[in-house]
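U., I forgot to send this yesterday:
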Amino acid sequence: MQKREKFAPIIRRQTSWRSRSTRGLVLVVLWGFIALVVLANIGFSLGWYSDSLVSLYLLFNLKVHGDNQLLVFIGWLIILTPVYCGWRWYRLSHDKGGRS
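Result:
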C-alpha cells in the first residue's frame, strides 16, 4: 500500500491586489443587495409595514406573494451550499486534483 503524500491544493498563480479588491467589492455589493431583498421579504412576512419597506419593495419590483418562495429558495441554498463545498473539498483532497 502506498503512503499518501500531504494534501496541497494547486495554486497556479497569485492574483493582483487590484483584482482581489475588485472581486471583493463586487461580492460585498451583491451580498448587500441580497440582504436588502431578504430583509424586505422577512419584514413583509412578519407584518412590518413602513414607508422604507414599501420603497424597497417598489425598488426591487418584488411580488408580495412571492416572498415565501424566495425564503424557501434561500433556505435550500443555505443547506445545499455547504453540502456541495464539503463534497468538492473531499474530491480535491482524495482524488489529487479532483479529476477522475
